[in-house]
Amino acid sequence: MTDRDKTQLGKTLWGIADDLRGAMNADDFRDYMLSFLFLRYLSDNYEAAAEKELGRDYPKINGNDRRVPLAIWYANNPDDVADFEKQMRRKVHYVIKPDHLWASIATLARTQNGELLNTLQAAFKYIETESFQSTFQGLFSEINLASDKLGKKYEERNVKLCTIIQKIAEGLMQFSTDADTLGDAYEYLIGQFAAGSGKKAGEFYTPQQISSILSGIVTLDSQEPKTGIKKKLASVLDFACGSGSLLLNVRKRMGPHGIGKIFGQEKNITTYNLARMNMLLHGVKDSEFEIFHGDTLTNDWEMLRETNPARKPKFDAVVANPPFSYRWEPNEAMGEDVRFKNYGLAPKSAADFAFLLHGFHYLKEEGVMAIILPHGVLFRGGAEERIRTKLLTDGHIDTVIGLPPNLFYSTGIPVCILVLKKCKKPDDVLFINAAEHFEKGKRQNRLTEEHIEKIINTYQFRKEEKRYSKRIPMERIAEEGYNLNISRYISTAVQEEEIKLEDVHSKLVESEKNIRKQTIEHNKFLTELGLPPLP
After folding, report:
1. Do the Cβ atoms of 252 and 227 come closer than 8 Å?
2. Residue 430 bridge partners (DSSP)
3. pLDDT digit string, tens, across residues 60-77
4. Do the beta carbons of residue 95 and residue 118 sit within 8 Å?
5. Does residue 384 have a pLDDT over 60?
6. Is the dihedral of CA 223, 224, 229, 232 positive or negative?
7. Rounded-to-integer distance, Cα 179 and Cα 185, Å
8. Whole-number Å distance between alpha carbons of 210 and 142
């Protein structure tokens, strides 16, 4: 399937979503639609594994039989079902009963079967509770099939679900839905729902163009970026991972086998479930990722609180797009927290540096971190100035990248990317002013592939370009009071062209001659017409 076809599936499903939303809130409808798309993926994956496992025993369907093949096998082999499911848990780490497969659910929807809602509830519950090592526990917890938003009575809810699922099934039938295609469609839909969610979009989605910059930076060799992409990342962390799109972008750069394990953390339960679905839909095995539901700032992920230095988790790459200027409640005990102890606490009004220090604490000595933050972190005073100064004097801030305004769905403010390292070679900071390099859009501005590659290339080779990028020695930054405001170091003003009075005079004289010449010619025509000449 071509990239165009993959995009087209997403557009087709989005068109269906647009038609069906009606009175239902867009965020609620998003959760239903994405969950059904995920059930389709799980079903396809499971049926393919079952066919491989059963081999010649996998039933062949004749034209008159409406049952799914696995339902026929279950009916013909009741004594072997338990052993088969045990094997499937070992192979694919979950089990779906034949009646719960997407094909069965779609048939119930098409025939307006009154048991659709009950069957769907049973399907979600079974997948969650019968999965291997709790990978799917709570995965559908935010999908309320008994919600009044679907209807006040069971029958009303059932009818609405039949309509929604039937339309989605019809849309999916138009395309070959392999795992890559479903994953791309899922990602496309998340982006489209984010575009319509306003400020809420910042909770779960980082635009792909910005994800591409961060992933392009952290996948390069940290000490010698000019040598290119690293062959392997043992681990990558996004501690505010949203729907997981940023982590998946890093994986895409490294290839499916280029990352040992992906780690993410997300506070919002709905978004946490989206992230887990997103990973699986993109072919990331449940053993290859770990997404934790919890609060990053209070650090309630037990794995990260390991006190034994030998077992303390460290990551090759850390990426993040945390909520901007998030209000938090630091207490006295947090001042002694190992993440903040050497730098101080970020102010209550803005947790930006608290998020940064959290990720930086878990970065490997030879690792690289890229984080998206509001411009205020570059110049605000008080506690933030003290934290920024220590990070600079300790040699940890490697690059500052200024981005254009209005790139996010959730805010129109311009943002920056800070690149940090525990050990960095150059005794300077690279500033990249990309704020004026973008394509203007009706709702959001966008960065083209050329803009993105220029930013990554400038970082990789530490290039300097007039009014775009410059390497600033630490001495100069100290003179500026450790203020990182980009305009202090890179002038974007276009120098006015020098005017030579002699040249201007000559042009005026020449213009005067032309005027006289043209007037004479014009008067000849006027005389021939019997009209008075111009003075």
Report:
1. no
2. 399, 471
3. 887 666 779 999 999 999
4. no
5. yes
6. negative
7. 10
8. 28
Task: Give the span between the Cα atoms of 101 and 99, in whole angstroms.
Answer: 6
Rounded Cα distance, 277 and 6, in Å? 18
Q: Is the pLDDT of residue 203 over 70?
A: no
Q: Which residue has the tokens 């489209």?
A: 192
Q: What is the pLDDT of residues 306-358, one digit of tens each?
A: 888 888 899 999 999 999 999 999 998 899 999 999 999 999 999 999 999 99
**Ramachandran assignment for 116, one of left (phi > 0), alpha (psi -120 to 50 degrees), beta (any other):** alpha
pTM for the complete prediction? 0.84
Q: How far apart are CA 266 and CA 239, in angstroms?
A: 7
Coil, helix or strand at residue 235: strand
Nearest to 135 by CA among 33, 256, 285, 260: 285
Task: Say if strands 469-473 and 428-433 run parallel, antiparallel, or are unpaired.
Answer: antiparallel
Count helices and strands (H / E) in the chain: 16, 9
Q: Tell me phi and psi for residue 414, to 5 degrees.
A: -70, 145
| Close Cβ partners of 406 (under 8 Å, ≥ 6 residues apart) | 412, 444, 445
Q: What is the mean pLDDT of residues 184-192?
A: 79
In 3D space, the residue among 238, 243, 185, 206 whose CA is nearest the CA of residue 409 turns out to be: 206
Q: Which residues contact 129 (CB under 8 A, 6 or more apart)?
A: 137
- Per DSSP, helices labelled H in 58-207 are 69-76, 81-91, 102-110, 116-129, 154-173, 179-195
List CB contacts of 380: < 8 A, sequence separation 6 or more.
350
pLDDT tens profile 13-45: 777 777 766 656 666 777 788 888 889 989 999
